[in-house]
Amino acid sequence: DLELGGKAAIVTGAASGIGRAIALVLSREGADLVLADLDAAGCERTLALMRAERADARGVVVRADASRYDDHEATVNAALDEYGGLDIAVNNAGIGGEPKITGELGPEAWRRVIDVNLNGVYYAMHAQLPALLARGGGAIVNIASILGQAGWRTASAYVASKHGVVGLTKTAALEYATRGIRINAVGPGFIETPILGDDPEALAQLAALHPVGRLGQPQEVGDLVAWLSSARASLVTGAYYPVDGGYLAQ
Ligand code: NAD
C-alpha cells in the first residue's frame, strides 16, 4: 500500500496508453485524479475504468493542450477547486513527431515536438510548483524515455525533447530539494501503446531490441511512477529511472 489516499494528482496525457495506466494505478492506491488531455472523451473513458475498479474513485477531466501554458494553469486550478490542493503531478503528455532524418525534418515539425514534449513539461512544472509549495511539498514525475539518454535515427526532435526533460528534471530537483518537492524522470523503453502504431512486424522488431525480448506494458510504467509519487520514495529526487527491460544496459 503506497498510502496515496487523500492525495490529489494531476496526470497529463491521461486519455491513452501510459498516462491512462498511471491514472489507474494512482487511483487504485487511493489518489484523487485530475485527468488532462487534448482528448477529453478518452479521459472520460479512463475515469470510467477507475470507477469500475473502485466505486468511490475520484476524478475530474480537463481538456488541456500540453503546449499551452494557460491550459496547465487551468489543470492546476481544477485540482485546487476539486480537492483543495495538489500533491502529485505526472507530466506524461507527449507525441512522437514525424519520422525523418534531421536534415529533412522541417522547423515546424521540430517546433511542434519541442512545444508539446519539452516546453509542455516546463509550463506544467511552472504552473504546478506554487501549488505543491502551498501544500508543503509533493512529487513531480516527468515521463521522459530511453531516448532521453540515447539517440534514435529519424527522431532528433523527440530525442532532444526527452534529453531536455531529463535536464529540466535534474535542475528543478536541485532547486526544490530542501522544500519538500521531489522531482524525478522515468524513462520507458518501447511500451505497447497507440504511439507505436499497429504494424505487427515493426512492433516485433522493436520488441527484439529489449533484452527481455518483449515490449513493455503501460502498467509497468504506472507501477514505477506510483512508487516515485509516494512517500516510500522519500530519498529519491533528481533521478532518472529507466523502465525498459534492460534496453539501456546494452
Ligand atoms: P499515447 O499516444 O498512447 O498517449 C499520449 C496521450 O497524450 C494521448 O492521450 C494524447 O491525446 C495526449 N496528447 C498528445 N498531444 C497532446 C497535447 N498537445 N496536449 C495534451 N495531450 C496530448 O502514447 P504513450 O505511449 O502513452 O505516451 C505517453 C508518454 O510516454 C509520452 O510522453 C511518450 O513520449 C512517452 N513514452 C512512450 C513510449 C512508448 O514506447 N509508448 C516510450 C517512451 C516514452
Automatic annotation (TrEMBL):
<dbReference type="GO" id="GO:0047936">
    <property type="term" value="F:glucose 1-dehydrogenase [NAD(P)+] activity"/>
</dbReference>
<dbReference type="InterPro" id="IPR020904">
    <property type="entry name" value="Sc_DH/Rdtase_CS"/>
</dbReference>
<comment type="similarity">
    <text>Belongs to the short-chain dehydrogenases/reductases (SDR) family.</text>
</comment>
<keyword id="KW-0560">Oxidoreductase</keyword>
<protein>
    <submittedName>
        <fullName>Glucose 1-dehydrogenase</fullName>
        <ecNumber>1.1.1.47</ecNumber>
    </submittedName>
</protein>
<dbReference type="InterPro" id="IPR036291">
    <property type="entry name" value="NAD(P)-bd_dom_sf"/>
</dbReference>
<dbReference type="InterPro" id="IPR002347">
    <property type="entry name" value="SDR_fam"/>
</dbReference>
<dbReference type="Pfam" id="PF13561">
    <property type="entry name" value="adh_short_C2"/>
</dbReference>
